[in-house]
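Onboarding guide, step 5: your first structure request.
Type a short instruction followed by the sequence, for example:

Predict the 3D structure of this protein.
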Amino acid sequence: MKFRYMFQQLVSHISVIVVAFIILSIVFAHYVGNLVFEEKVEELTTYGENIISDLGRSSNVDSLIRQYSNMLGERNILFMVFDENGVSLNTAGGFVPQVELKKKEWDKVRSGHIVSVKQDYKRFEQEVTFIVMPYMIGKTFVGGVLLASPISGTQEMIHDINQYLFYTMFLALGVALLMSWILSTIHVKRIKRLRLATSMISAGDYSVKLPSSDFDEIGELSKDFNKMAQRLQKSMEEIENLETRRRKFMADVSHEMRTPLTTISGVIEGLKNDLIPVEEKAKGVQLVSEETKRLIRLVNENLDYEKIRSNQVTLKKETIELLDVLEIVQDTLEPQAEEKNDQIIVEVPDSLPITADYDRLIQILINITKNSIQFTENGTIWIRGIAGEQETIIEIEDTGIGIDPEEIEKIWHRFYKADVSRTGTPFGQFGLGLSIVKQLVQLHDGKIEVTSEKGKGTKFEIRIPHSV
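The system replies with structure tokens like these:
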């Protein structure tokens, strides 16, 4: 069963108001009843003290009773004077019927104390408040005075108060209905916007944006919803870019694999069918060997990336001399640099240690230096080592063609290649080189940054902390 939000608001507001007014009515009735009782007891006590005082001075009790009967009758107060046995002396007026007191009340009056009863309707013909005051001569009880006042006026007062509260409650209910309708209408509209936006998200539209604020929880929810939508949109864009790069990568890999496989197949067929001259067979076998190694490098590079990405690579860190590592990189890549007429210069102070996995550090530096060679011709490539406070800094800088500013962040993406119209295969032979580099640097708890200016070269900066 569907219970609309507006009706929930109405029921909750009305329930609170009704309960509040019921409690308020009970409290008011109790308070007013006590207040009227205390005032009535005080009034009756004053009259009783006057009557007892006059009884001590007057020799004519009947005349005194008649005088007070006329005065108190105008105030609708009943009174009775009685002797030590409780017998009424009101033969000349006043409240003539005999009123019997309970034993506890008699005991209290006989001991000289005043008895007050808030509400009594059994011993009188109407509901009254009454007091009994003892008449003492010295310490001797000789009689007393009973004064009673009907409480109909009190009930009428409480009834009037409850009636005003009732009218006020209806006015409050009207205001509550109006406020509930206004608030529920506003909130329902905001909730509907959220629901519509959620439907758009589920339909694949992540461009939705809701008005948000810090005023209440719904505003904060809208703000969080907008952040979620932005992240989803960014994730979908990344997925689409990744899928595009994946397709491009598969096309590149297929092309890269097709060429060596075709070559290998052709040479094998030629050897099998004796189509290759004897003097050319050695060259053909060498060609098959080179193309096979090329295929192995392609497969290994992909496997290497997946191992790093899935945290299956365990580093064996040790403290090594950076100069030794950089000289190995220089010696390894010197032939490739000479082909491009490049010069590799190593600049590192003596005894500069670095804490790293030896093999992986070599892999990082060779990958970056290869890229520098590929984009530098007739230039210089510097490999520097710098001692930091709590880290070792390695810089690889070239005088090559540089990278477009919008391309810098993309070079770390898997499958990414720069301008494919260029000769060679930049940024890693198969678009995985720098992606692997960044993963390996992060495994060393390090950081890698690149700065470049178009036509003026590129500089990679690697920071490896001093920790084993």
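Each response can be followed by summary notes, for example: The chain has three domains: 5-156, 217-309, 317-465.
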